[in-house]
Please model this.
Amino acid sequence: MSTDILVWTIEHGGLVATVSERGQLDGDAALVEMLRTRLNEPVTVYRHGTVRSRADAPHREIVLHPGDGRHVVACVRRLCDGGDFAVIDCNWA
Model:
């Protein structure tokens, strides 16, 4: 079994931080604090459309909470869905 962990590099307002799929944060303190807050919020995802249901898709939502293995991935996807956040890198650690 592989122990590789996916790590995203997130940029927001000139600040940069990394987020691992296990929820570990590192980088600019202000952005880390902002991301920590976001990573503690439940996230609603949809079978079709992920962070926003497609208009033509049946409404089937799943609410993910911190501690769920898919939660951090959903948080990162939601951050970059039309906001001021950008994933500028994604690598295995």
Remarks:
- The two ends are 15 Å apart (CA to CA).
- The helical segments are 29-39, 71-79.
- The chain has a mean pLDDT of 87.
